[in-house]
């Protein structure tokens, strides 16, 4: 092991690139410039994110907007919320097929998803129940790749076949995640094992709560806010890491299962899909550390300690605050917060909601005082989603899989868009900064 550590140190030394070389060669690290603008890598019709607008010819931060197929997500959500409907299925239809469904189309689509919401015979026993592990994202990836082995037409990338594969994956992702957790919880935590079958009459959100709970029960507000969370996490432009991964891998001509497994690997990263877990852990640490969580001065002082790397994980971050794209506000967080307050009140968690609300209000002020900011800082959707999942009784192991259950819709839409429109493999350039040198055989050194 000592030799391995030495080799690792040598590897790190020989692979380190001086930061100034990126500026010298005009290479934008993370494919984003210093103003936070992303390098354009493609075109899409699936969603639009707006965080800046031109005012008198000057690029100016604005309130965030997110549009699915050109329609403001706030209007979409208002449409099904005001009608007291759950929206996951109809918004999935919109993203996949370009227009909102008519009532008859929505009913047919719901029926179609219910029909394909089933796993191969003995799949739960032979795949999910064997070698369960706490890392649910790895379990999901393994299950997705194994489903490919059951598909006679796995490598057929014709649009009808890919669409059929995507619809099956959208339907079974909740089963793979919940059953994977139940298996781990049984074998490693000595908990009772129960596998509830999904109800074809229920929506994705209702089935998740039904399958997760021993008594299969849930309230209307619980189903409504989980459904809203799924809709708001469903899609976020072609440039987010996991969706861009879907584009890149799909452009090679590979199969659907490999493309989605690659996207899952991206989402698993804590810089992408794991942020809501860090928010919950940060707030739990805050509750333990503070004498009075209602004292704004004490909360503010703790936030300063977070930025100064003196509290929590000492990374210098206030998790859930700020976003790579949005500046003044994240529209998903704004919409989600309204229902978070209602759910927290119903569940007797109003005091903790008030703490989240205070952090959301005070953190931008503290960050503005401590850091140079080129755009605004506001709470993102991850700030409240972990809190919501916790009070819904969803275990932390399933926080990121919940993200995947939603985002599989966006990944599917982007995979189809890539296959329909592009015939070239995505291959950006990397510029070498290694000087040429002569080879000297080892025996001559």
CATH architecture group name of the largest domain: Orthogonal Bundle
**Radius of gyration, taken over Cα atoms and rounded to an integer in Å:** 23 Å
Number of strands: 3
CATH topology title of the largest domain: Citrate Synthase, domain 1
* Helicity, as a percent range: 55-70%
CATH superfamily of the largest domain: Citrate Synthase, domain 1
Give the overall shape, derived from the CA principal axes.
Answer: globular
Q: Secondary-structure element order, as H and E?
A: HHEEEHHHHHHHHHHHHHHHH
Main CATH class of the largest domain: Mainly Alpha
Average residue-wise pLDDT:
92
Q: Domain count, please report it.
A: 2
Neighbour order of strands in the largest sheet: 1-2-3
Structural class comes to mainly alpha
Major beta sheet summary: 3 strands, antiparallel
Distance between the termini: 27 Å
Count of helix runs: 18
Give a description of the structure:
The chain has 445 residues and is mostly helical. It has 2 domains: 72-271 and 395-421, Citrate Synthase, domain 1, CATH 1.10.580; 275-391, Cytochrome p450-Terp, domain 2, CATH 1.10.230. Helix content is 56%, strand content 5%. The chain is built from 18 helices and 3 strands. The chain has a 3-stranded antiparallel sheet. A hairpin with a 2-residue loop joins strand 2 and strand 3 (71-72). The two termini are 27 Å apart.
Main features:
445 residues; mainly alpha; Citrate Synthase, domain 1; Cytochrome p450-Terp, domain 2; 2 domains; 3-stranded antiparallel sheet
